[in-house]
Design a protein that fits this description.
Length: 339
Amino acid sequence: MCEPSNESMALRNCFPLLLILLPVCPALAQEGPPDHPRVEIAPSHELRFGPNVLQVDFAAGDLDLPADAILAHIRAAASAVATYYGRLPVARARLLLVPVAGRSGIMQGTTWPGMNGFQGFTRIRIGQHTTTSELGEDWTTTHELVHMAFPTLPDEQHWMEEGLATYVEPIARVATGELEARQVWRDMVYGMRKGEPAEGDLGLDRTHTWGRTYWGGALFCLVADVQIRRETQDRKGLQDALRAIVAQGGTINHEWTLDQALAIGDRATGTHVLTQMYAEWKDKPVQVDLMKLWEELGIRWTAGGPIEFVASAPLARIRDSIAGERSHAQPAAGVSGTR
């Protein structure tokens, strides 16, 4: 489903959820869709989030880091997703780590629906010489797991799948303490402008450039989040809409139309923000006054400098509700305890 560019947003640590590691027998397993090769699997592990399970498989190959360090990183990524959505989105998910000899860093991730009994399957290519520092800078793992929390859409709406993962990934990690809010808003300030329509743009459904797919989709999510919170006096936000979509079965292993998903989201927030915005943005360019938006949210910066928050800004409360300095997260339903 997804092979994101390295220009999205960023990572750090983990929220205390009860995560249990259970060994699973080695085997041969599919690396991707049916036309991909089968790979030898080293010992596997299960991360449990209440009743839901993320199975982590290591493909055969050398890695400098111990398995426990890599599992801790995956645990943190899955914890962020489970916290944002209130649970791990699907009952059974699988993540396959494929070592790449002679390389370093998390190199690429892809996620597919419904494979071999798993509702979601993510493959992550990880360099043999990946360091702890490089794991700490990785955003791809969380981004990929967010994909499991939205239905599979037609190709022309791929921007929603990628934009949503780009937007939710860092916000979820603020909630679990992995990222600082100032860093996330700084990344948004510099990233969202990449999603603005250029000359000749035909709307999000009809313009499939990298910028419009990832950052254009993320910009749609940001504007929708702010508008929902405006209309509900900050009682509801995009998170409420997304949780409702997952609760009604809108996960990666089901094919829906975007209209279907957005209608559920609107009912959950008591607004028409998502469906109205989609009607406007899908087939014509919509320019967002980003400078005005940042000012209203109370986000001030100088070129190359740090982000400052303006407490007296009209939408400062909304800014903090979306991604504030303090965690607003609650443990995912059915998950408790410490690691």
